[in-house]
Amino acid sequence: VPANPGDRTIAHLDVDAFYVSVECCRRPELLGEAVVVAGSGPRAVVTTASYEARRYGVGSAMPAAKARRLCPQAIFLAPDFALYQQVSRQLMALVRAATTRVEVVGLDEAYLDLTELSFPHAAMRRLVAVIAERTGLTCSVGIGPNKQVAKVASDAEKPAGFVVLTRAQACVRFAQAPPELIPGIGPKTATRLRELGVRTIEDLAQTPVELLGERFGTNAGRGLARMARFDHDGEVSDERAVVSASRERTFDHDLSDPAELERALANMARELCGSLSKQGRSGRTVSIKVRLDDFSTVTRARTVSRPTSDGEVVADVALGLLRDYRPSRPVRLLGVRVAGFGADAAGSAGAAATPERSVPATIATDQLLLPL
Ligand SMILES: [Mg+2]
User: 262 catalytic, yes or no?
Assistant: First the structure.
């Protein structure tokens, strides 16, 4: 029973090294080895590395060539997304059986609202055990009064972590961590914070909200101040609340030809809309992401008058955004996103206030729907 009427108990569950773990389940001889799941081709990046490989400095989103240099003895596997999706469905069925409110935020990650349960910690221990027994996967769990605390807690002691924190405990435990530790504070925001002299979460908590408001805008400033106190109040929303979907592609060779870029972008837009229509989803905000050969990355967005999943409409808007932007250098990566699902996009319109979330530019994003 919650101590205060408004208190909630939220868990974040995250499978450890998901792709690698799935590979180890079907090939147990891989267990304990340095294993890297990465695409092939000159621009391939690491999607997941086993903890043994991470010891050599191999990490997600790192170029595969660099991973080979750091850990030449690692076993490199090509990703098998069909299998990962199949295992994910099995996993999420077990997660949904644990409580009524579940928000799936990736193939291997979900938030669970446990407020109604009498013994939430025991329920999560049981769920972790059932997942291990049925799927062979190891998870890390964080439990707290909100999604923010739960998420940071689940990351804190990976693999096989089980961390329960109050808001005050989270503030103390992560006081000296950089602001990027907080989901929603990306590298760009962190850089701007450093310009204000803010290097730690504690620094951020001590920065006057007025100053943050001047620098980031009133809403975003308020959001940052709340995040610094681990007091972010996002609801655990069910599946329908997935707010965006995207496709992106890293080219094997940088592209400079506008016609080629437009062709690639239009294809991605149509492909994305094909899968949105199948799911009965549509959105009002179309955005593009362009990463240049110097790794600078920009996004440009436009909101249309009504929700759409029409490939031609989305392609049109995306191409317009690309033409307006006119990349000044060769393009390494191009992406398109449709956001603001559902009738009322007001919540996500404030997304300017929700700073960027880093989604690694992996080939995985070509295949998957990634919630924002
Ligand atoms: Mg994971």
Answer: no
